[in-house]
Amino acid sequence: MEFKTKKKFGQHLLISEGVIKKIVDVIEITPSDIIVEIGVGTGQLTEEILKRNPKILYGIEIDKTAYPIIEQRFKNFKNFILIKKDFFDVNLKEIAKDKIKLVGNLPYNISSLILVSTVFYIDIIERAVFMIQKEVAEKLIAKPKTKNYTFLSVFIQTFFEIEYVMSVPARFFKPPPKVTSAVVKLTPKKELPISLKEAKEYKNFISGLFSNKRKMLRSKIDKNLLEKANIPETARVEELSLEDFINLYKNYQATKSK
């Protein structure tokens, strides 16, 4: 069946067998694994996952024109379930009662939103392996005082250990994107410095600090809080370490609860 990629869904189909196998190697599939794939497309990655025989693979796909192709291609796999929805309309905790492994060649136009969403499922995620735009991958591993250090860097690094697996040139996709891609692996930290129930408020707190990032922190937050966290009031947000953000947030929470 003929399939046309759609710009509105940010579709770039991965066609390199070597890269596909490498991604699935990084997932480290076992027979007891519950895998969730975000964006099945026409199923190139899906097929390689199913070859490794997980307990079950849930494939989430928004594009209705892909459904007949997917259903035909995987009709003989009892351990494959197609979820015909937008990822943001799926509650992963409803489809998986145990730990899951997340994987996907993410649409570049929403990859950052999906990455942020994974934090709110961290209690059921064993690991996540994603293909994303290289520029976004570099933000995930960025350090303070660098141009790639953003809200995304701090928020994801708070909850996950991040490994930059490899870069992937545009020629390995159909159609080729205008950017280089990258594979990253996210592993939840064994001890979370911020609890899951606080994640939303923490997200808003960090996001607020990164607005107008060139302004000194004293224009955004109480000077007493900065002093308690041992942060100079003339500092700018991109100068703060991950520990500074966590410390500042905890002092902020302590002040609120008084």
What does this entry look like structurally?
By secondary structure, the chain is of the alpha/beta class. The chain has two domains: 182 residues, Rossmann fold, CATH 3.40.50.150; 61 residues, rRNA adenine dimethylase, C-terminal domain (Helicase, Ruva Protein, domain 3, Orthogonal Bundle), CATH 1.10.8. The protein is built from ten helices and nine strands. A seven-stranded mixed β-sheet has the order 4-3-2-5-6-9-7, sandwiched between helices. A two-stranded antiparallel sheet has the order 1-8. Helix 3 links the parallel strand 3 and strand 4. It is elongated and about 65 Å long. The N and C termini lie far apart (63 Å).
Major β-sheet strand ordering? 4-3-2-5-6-9-7
Q: Describe the biggest sheet?
A: 7 strands, mixed
> What would the CATH topology of the largest domain be?
Rossmann fold
- Structural class assignment: alpha/beta
- Helix fraction? 25-40%
Distance between the termini: 63 Å
Gross morphology is elongated
The helix-strand sequence is EHEHEHEHEHEHHEEEHHH
Low-pLDDT residue intervals, each spanning 5 or more residues: none
In CATH, the architecture of the largest domain is 3-Layer(aba) Sandwich
What is the percentage of strand-forming residues?
Answer: 15-25%
- CATH class designation of the largest domain: Alpha Beta
**Average predicted confidence as pLDDT:** 91
Any key phrases for this structure?
seven-stranded mixed β-sheet, Rossmann fold, 258 residues, two-stranded antiparallel ribbon, alpha/beta
Layout of helices and strands:
Layout: E1 13-14, H1 17-27, E2 34-38, H2 44-51, E3 56-60, H3 67-73, E4 80-83, H4 92-95, E5 100-105, H5 111-119, E6 125-133, H6 134-140, H7 151-159, E7 160-168, E8 173-174, E9 181-188, H8 199-210, H9 223-228, H10 242-257
Parallel strand pairs: 2-3, 2-5, 3-4, 5-6
Antiparallel strand pairs: 1-8, 6-9, 7-9
Helix pairs in contact: 1-2, 5-7
